[in-house]
């Protein structure tokens, strides 16, 4: 579905991505893990065309995405911090996105819209929203157009437990429809049950890309968080902020 | 270009207090000038200063601030199935329409009502073009500099340059080379500043060119002809198109 070939990105002197090669196929729920500043968001933004790579290629369904834009019809993106025009109302943002996507009404997926009860606050301005409500709007927009690929950057950050459960159920449901789901998250325990593959990045480099079973058997642990902790221990990195469990 | 983005930008700007206030101030100033000053040519000369200084300043500074404040909106659009070029050009069309409309209501309408003459029409066209040119320059400064305060600073410096510094340099050159026949060169040099082009065009129409001496006569010779006007029109068009072109090319490769 998505092929990444020798992707590198430099921001001035900072090498944000170093020679990344990845092959992401549909029907998988892939967790993108790594410390802060390891290049996860840059990788995601490169796939979305928001960041222009310094070298390397990204192929979407076999086509190079360089200077393309129509392929983004097949991607639903939920950003880390949903930033919207502050003066717009929730209803206007939703309308504008529907306008841009041109998806006919009967093909829209309004499940999250209904479950998050956004219809009760269509008149609220974006600047008055709490972080969690923004996340709800972002999630709703990402899933609304029934895209083949879902890219979720820290989806559960800021969501209350009930909303997190709704979102998780939705992710599981979409995965069964043979979609590719790419998630970055620090809260590992949240994702244990969803994830089928793990990508681990550090300092802009790809450390590994493995299926969950392989990772668990390689490290001899039964939980994702322990497996990751195990790997990090081996790489002897003193401060990693994602180990909250135990 | 994308009509939906244009529609959104315009409806957002119409609700913007600064644009509303700008329109009101322009309207109040031009109406008071026309009511106080009976002689139409004199009131056009007074309005000239308003058009040559205030319109470029507000166009460039307001557009720059608006672009920086729309960063999130632009990032949101870029992640959607839209062409970057059409996003950027649509924002330009939206901004340019709003600034042009504010000028038309504030200065254009009163001028056409009270001073419907060739000089009045030249003034309105000059002001409209200046609005578009300085929005276009703002697109370029805002896309090149990531930092908002630096961007606004550059916008103000550019305005100072076009409105004041350029003329000071020109005067300096004139005095230094007063012994040489540089009048024809002055026509060429004035093309480097859209504010100067507008000033000359309007002054020629209200027959103040007599006060410009021999240079005024040269200007009259050049701007009075069809070819001269054609070249002037082309240069003004380039002043709109080139900054926008550079900005669009940069935006296509920008990381958001």
Termini separation of chain A comes to 37 Å
How many structural domains of chain A? Answer: 1
- Give the CATH level 1 class of chain A: Alpha Beta
Strand content of chain B: under 5%
Order of helices and strands of chain A: EEEHEEEHHHEHEHEEHH
**What is the assembly state of the chains in this entry?**
heterodimer
For the biggest β-sheet of chain A, the strand order reads: 6-7-8-3-9-10
**Chain pair sharing the greatest interface:** A-B, 25 and 24 residues
Give helix % range of chain B.
Answer: over 70%
Shape of chain B: globular
What's the total count of β strands of chain A? Answer: 10
Question: What descriptors fit this protein?
Answer:
heterodimer, A: 246 residues, alpha/beta, Rossmann fold, six-stranded mixed beta sheet, four-stranded antiparallel beta sheet, B: 256 residues, 84% helix, 0% strand
Can you put this structure into words, describing what you see?
- Chain A has eight helices and ten strands.
- Chain A has 246 residues and is α/β, with parallel strands linked by helices.
- In chain A, the strands form two sheets. In chain A, strands 6-7-8-3-9-10 form a six-stranded mixed sheet, sandwiched between helices.
- In chain A, a hairpin with a 2-residue loop joins strand 4 and strand 5 (63-64).
- Chain A starts with a strand and ends in a 12-residue tail after the last helix.
- The relative contact order of chain A is 0.17.
- With 256 residues, chain B is an all-alpha fold.
- Chain B has one domain (3-252).
- In chain B, helix 2 packs parallel to helix 5, helix 6 crosses helix 7 (148-176) and helix 8 crosses helix 10.
- The model of chain B has no long low-confidence stretch (mean pLDDT 90).
- Chains A and B meet through helix 2 of A and helix 1 and helix 4 of B.
